[in-house]
Amino acid sequence: xxxxxxxxxxxxxxxxxxxxxxxxxxxxxxxxxxxxxxxxxxxxxxxxxxxxxxxxxxxxxxxxxxxxxxxxxxxxxxxxxxxxxxxxxxxxxxxxxxxxxxxxxx
Length: 106
Known about the structure:
globular; 34% strand; mainly beta; 0% helix; 6-stranded antiparallel β-barrel
C-alpha cells in the first residue's frame, strides 16, 4: 500500500483501464528526471500497476492505493519497502509523488 499525491495539473482516472506508470525511489520533491550527457536516464524505473484507487486522482490530494509490482520476481524491487519515498513517472515526466506505507502487493 502507498500514499500517492498528484502534482498540479495532473489528473488521472486509474479505474478506466489498467493504470501502469513507473515509480522511481528517492526524493519526493524531485520535479525533473535525471538525464546524463548522452541523453540517457540513469534512474531506476520500476513498473507498477495502480489498483484499489479512487476513481479520480486529483492534484494535491493524498490518497491510498495499492501498487502491484508488475515484473516481480524477475525484477526484485529492492528498496520498495515501508517508509520508502518515490516520484511517479510517465516516461520522463514526473506527475506525482508518494511513499510506501505497507508491503506492496505482488
